[in-house]
What does this fold into?
Amino acid sequence: MTEQRCLFCGGDATEPNHWEFCDGRQGGRDDEPIVIRIRSPRETSVQAFYNAVDAGIIETRRAQVWVGLKALGVATANEVFEYLKEERRLGLRYDSNTRARLTELRDMGLIREVGDRACRVTHQTCITWAVVPSSEYAGVAIVHRCPCCGQIVSRDLPVIKSA
It folds into this structure.
């Protein structure tokens, strides 16, 4: 088996018990007790996700977020959430679904980041989003994952070259 360098400590990530002693710095720490690490999603979370997919909630919420962003033009995630909650009268309790759907829509090539500005809801500097016109659609993003842990490392977002 070939050695795979750990992104955190630089050690061999394929060694048995590597993750019990890796502390994110060069070298491991033998003086700390072994802790339980959860390396994969909990079964309840996985089941909840698939229930939402089966019920059409994910696809529905994605469409609602797209429609909200199209209506607003350029907006932050919180502005889209507030629009959906107040103007569209959707019974939303929290906005984490909005942010996740914006990322999915971006990776699908349907919306794009257009800059940042002070959010009208939080007054903090936030990313602004806009719907990609159909004439400018360039395709879906290519997602790159870490070979050791599977976490997303980067995304290649296609763009149409200007004439």
